[in-house]
Design a protein that fits this description.
Radius of gyration of chain A: 27 Å
Oligomer: homodimer
Number of domains of chain A: 3
CATH class of the largest domain in chain A: Alpha Beta
CATH topology of the largest domain in chain A: Rossmann fold
Strand content of chain A: 5-15%
Number of strands of chain A: 12
Number of helices of chain A: 12
Chain lengths: 362, 362
Amino acid sequence: MAGSRSGPNMTQIAKVVGVSSATVSNALSGKGRVSPKLVEKIRATAAELGYVPSNAGRALRTGRSNVLGLVLPDISNPLFPQIAQAMEVAASNAGYGVLIADSRGDVTTQTQAIARLIERGVDGLVVIPRRGTRIGSVACPVAMVDTPSTPGNTVSADHWEGGQQVIRHLKELGHHNFLFVGHDPASNVQNDRIGGMKSVLAPGDKHQTIWIESLLAGTPDQTSLGLLDHVKNGVTAIAAVSDLHALRVLTELQTAGIKVPEQVSVTGFDDLVFSPVVTPALTTVHMNMTRIAEIAIAALIKDIEAPRASPDDPDTSNYKTGSTDQNTVKADTSKVSMQLVVRGSCAPAVPSATPSPNGETL
Amino acid sequence: MAGSRSGPNMTQIAKVVGVSSATVSNALSGKGRVSPKLVEKIRATAAELGYVPSNAGRALRTGRSNVLGLVLPDISNPLFPQIAQAMEVAASNAGYGVLIADSRGDVTTQTQAIARLIERGVDGLVVIPRRGTRIGSVACPVAMVDTPSTPGNTVSADHWEGGQQVIRHLKELGHHNFLFVGHDPASNVQNDRIGGMKSVLAPGDKHQTIWIESLLAGTPDQTSLGLLDHVKNGVTAIAAVSDLHALRVLTELQTAGIKVPEQVSVTGFDDLVFSPVVTPALTTVHMNMTRIAEIAIAALIKDIEAPRASPDDPDTSNYKTGSTDQNTVKADTSKVSMQLVVRGSCAPAVPSATPSPNGETL
DNA sequence: CTGAAAGCGCTTACAG
DNA sequence: CTGAAAGCGCTTACAG
């Protein structure tokens, strides 16, 4: 009874066709050394019998599961769907399955999640680390997806450049007084985005940054960000590090009776689902997740397959079996550039958006 | 070289301890028949050697992979993070891993995704079907998560009841003229939500339903829903089938200069990430995903384990091996009730929310 | 071009 | 309480 399967196995196909199971294996895998007509016959029989290869058998024999693990910092992140979908597609195209693990924002959980994944025999790991966390030694190749400024990172969007694009756009519209809205000052990604924004400011430009987490620590979600004061002080453009915060800004402004984009321009990041459908639609920065996933998966697979594939070419791989050190895929970080998506939430700066005390304009 | 692993296997532990691998297996699995002191010694040695059990070996022998497949209709659905996270936690607690597959909104892809999962040897499948799709015969137990009105469904939130809660709340606030906003008239979930809403209307209440997909077919995302007209015609409360649409409604209203909730109340569904942070925060209906996932996974596991566990108790399982028919876990659908979350987007109806022509109030 | 044989790591009757 | 043996399904040198 043990290990019995519903469908037929190679031995049964072999019996039906009248050949050995080795030949069936070779025919099905297309590794040649079988006559075309036999291949044909074996394939037909397999299909007819509804043969489904056993992953367990293959994995045990080859030492590979053809499954990759995806470790996410926080599955409830609104960007997660995009990430998971892109990874699933990229892995699937390369013949790999994706096992997910949520580290729930916690470093300990992240470690446990990785351990569980390893036990399940994954061939490699894609890790989206929690805020600049470093991954300790892991018994399989790892691809890290983070911001370029994180050391040991494999691939990421160029958040810095994305920030630059946002501000360049706003400056072209005549804005010179900015408010940057971040959430968590410990986030590398957010710092890179804001860093990029600041990097293209001209000497005369004004700017200020607020961090929601610090600002609102302990208060309920609904608390105001105090945007009205900033606007009164002359801010004409508010650039957030995420569409989620841009949305918060937008609705707070609208509720306060400030017109967006007529009086104040608002921008976000990430092109989340809701961004195109709100009024005004959010101008944001889109990240090519498909591309990022492809690069991450490709790097991983190269590493997984290299050691066995070509032992005569050791340079191909930087994965050190048994090493207690980093075996993260260490190729220089690939930066995937981000793309500005211009929608309706920005408009030319009006010379005096601030109601000047005496009412005169300019 | 083939199948070589980094760590030690049972045979090696057996050699070190000086017993047979069978004893190691028994000791580690805790299946008894091994003296306590030997168990102790074996465990210690295993830990010391850094033994990690091979899933492949176990799977091949037992015929079980301890991996479940999660088939999603559309990973980009904003509710997906909640679903995936809940499923991952529930499965993980039960000792199972979760392999994801995105059917990308397509029925064909859904079928392929299921096939791929089966090939990878999953023991069972959790399927969130695409709009009332039925799943054909599958070679493993399946738990369907949909709305109670979908036949063959295993567990779901009680969307109908959720709709009732929304309208009861709005009626308590004095509203009698409603606009229901759906997206896709073919969605069972959305129809159930709106059905529940309508079911608690009183004879004198007015209501109308608009379906975004039909209304906006072919037009760009940013197109207006024409809400202003409805408000002018007396609508004082707009209930959407999702927070995503409620958000769209909210921002469209705000941009048009209509105050929410003072002039018009707005409600959503699903308690998405952004709902608590927009202004006004969205009153919505929360779904206990954790509970739903637990029920789905429990049903699945019962089915997976029953046939082998107790062949003397056939009633325990309704999974028919080799049957060409439905092998969906067929227990009567468990309905998990939804919970109204009252936040700031609703207010008492004002007798005359419509700006009366001559400007007088009341 | 094809087959016999070994073995990946585990678990489970069975015998002692 | 412990061990020898078989076998889950596959692939890969190796021999013919």
